[in-house]
């Protein structure tokens, strides 16, 4: 088990991004943020004036899309829409909500499924998302489901993004709650732990505490425990 494919699923604000990035760096693996791909589609839809429930227009949009990750390292990869670096443009509250909306559409999920599997072919990667262990990589070598209490998740999101967005803690919590409900209740690939996922609750744990816990699980898996 030299080259592993590791998945980390969980709700917003559970610490997935920071943890996935650091875990990938510790292992010398690539870090793939699949939420960025949904956000990239959402940005393209917003620019093209495509409504999140217009499946035909979304299908046309996806056919012409070229989303790629470039660069690597602890800073993570940058997302490009054709030749444009959209990494920062996809982080607004509007795109967050729109991404949650379009991610419920099978046509969008089907398009991104192939792209994600292609990215995972070489393994040696940590994939972060909502359905990595359940749908995209059901055969992943190690699957984690990272969660934390809702209050703590909202506080973390607020600390991360308030300076940039000007949102209040209440508004961050309300947005998060709405997105979580959308993500958990959609009929296609809803957010839920894979049956064989290792559940980690990050409430009250430091990032390194979570990463060390995951590394211990990975070492145990490698040792065949
Ligand atoms: O992780 P994030 O907040 O950047 O994700 C943006 C949206 O995309 C989120 O509402 C859920 C959706 N998403 C998904 O449905 N499946 C994934 N694998 C990743 C993200």
Please characterize this protein's 3D structure:
This protein has 225 residues and is α/β, with parallel strands linked by helices. It has one domain: P-loop containing nucleotide triphosphate hydrolases (Rossmann fold). Helices cover 51% and strands 15% of the residues. The protein has a 5-stranded parallel β-sheet with strand order 2-6-1-7-8. A 3-stranded antiparallel β-sheet has the order 3-4-5, covered by helices on one side. α2 packs across α4 and α4 runs parallel beside α8. The protein is globular, with a radius of gyration of 17 Å. 40% of the residues are buried. Bound molecules: 2'-deoxycytidine-5'-monophosphate (DC).
Please describe the topology of this protein.
Layout: E1 5-9, H1 16-27, E2 30-33, H2 34-48, H3 55-63, E3 67-70, E4 78-81, E5 84-85, H4 93-102, H5 106-120, E6 125-129, H6 132-136, E7 142-147, H7 150-165, H8 169-185, E8 198-201, H9 207-222
Parallel strand pairs: 1-6, 1-7, 2-6, 7-8
Antiparallel strand pairs: 3-4, 4-5
The structure holds 2'-deoxycytidine-5'-monophosphate.
């Amino acid at each position: 088990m030299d080259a592993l494919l590791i998945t980390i699923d969980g709700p917003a604000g559970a610490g997935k991004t920071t943890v996935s990035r650091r875990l990938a760096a510790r292992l010398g693996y690539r870090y793939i943020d699949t939420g960025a791909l949904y956000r990239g589609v959402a940005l393209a839809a917003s620019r093209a004036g495509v409504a999140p429930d217009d499946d035909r227009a979304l299908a046309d949009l996806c056919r012409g899309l070229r989303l790629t990750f470039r660069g690597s390292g602890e800073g993570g990869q940058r997302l490009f829409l054709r030749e444009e670096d959209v990494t920062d443009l996809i982080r607004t509250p509007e795109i967050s909500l729109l991404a949650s909306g379009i991610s419920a559409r099978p046509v969008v999920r089907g398009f991104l499924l192939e792209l994600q599997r292609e990215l995972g072919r070489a393994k040696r990667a940590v994939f972060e998302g909502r359905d990595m262990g359940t749908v995209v990589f059901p055969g992943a070598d190690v699957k984690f489901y990272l969660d934390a209490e809702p209050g703590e998740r909202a506080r973390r999101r607020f600390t991360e993004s308030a300076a940039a967005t000007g949102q209040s803690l209440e508004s961050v919590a309300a947005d998060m709650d709405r997105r979580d409900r959308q993500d958990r209740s959609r009929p296609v690939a809803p957010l839920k732990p894979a049956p064989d996922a290792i559940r980690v609750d990050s409430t009250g744990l430091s990032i390194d505490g979570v990463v060390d816990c995951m590394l211990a699980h990975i070492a145990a898996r490698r040792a065949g425990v």
